[in-house]
Amino acid sequence: MNLIALAVLMNTNSSGYSTLLISKNKERTSAVLSMTALIINIIFGYTLISFFHVDFSYVILATLFTYVYFSFMVVVKGKECLCKSNMVSTFKSFFPIRLFIPYLVALIISCLQYENFIWLPLVLYMILNKRDIFMMFNTAKKLIINPDIINI
């Protein structure tokens, strides 16, 4: 289940850019990326099963790596629609280091089946994102104290 959650998390990271492509009439680009991702997923999954003989629970790694490819390519194409950018800024948009480190630790813990350390990615996330967490709590506090801030 950990690997499934990590795979799905990778895909949700790029949903905004995918929507951007569609809104900019780049449906064909999105479709080509989706089809390429499907082919990669089938090939990688077949390779894991046929050649590496992995357990059934590790076949989800094919989907995880496919989501990495798809998400990164969607961010690249989305950034092309918005502005010119280099590979470093694209990678920062795709997966900031403050999110990548906890994700990588969670992936390693899940693959090595060190279930006793599954709390470690959460702690790392909270340490690396403490400013954003405090801002979120301050915003929630403001909304509770004065709900009229949001006046539609």
Task: Tell me about this structure.
- With 152 residues, the protein is mainly α.
- Helices cover 76% and strands 0% of the residues.
- The chain has eight helices and no strands.
- The longest helix is centred in the first third of the chain and has 24 residues, at 27-50.
Defining key terms:
152 residues; mainly alpha; 8 helices
How does the SSE layout of this entry go?
Elements: H1 2-12, H2 15-23, H3 27-50, H4 60-82, H5 87-94, H6 97-112, H7 120-128, H8 130-145
Helix pairs in contact: 1-4, 2-4, 3-4, 4-5, 6-7
Quote the average pLDDT: 91
Number of helical segments with 4 or more residues: 8
Are there runs of 5+ residues with pLDDT below 50, and where?
none
Q: Characterize the main sheet.
A: none
Q: How many strand segments? A: 0
As a percent range, the share of strand residues is under 5%
Short description:
By secondary structure, this protein is an all-alpha fold.
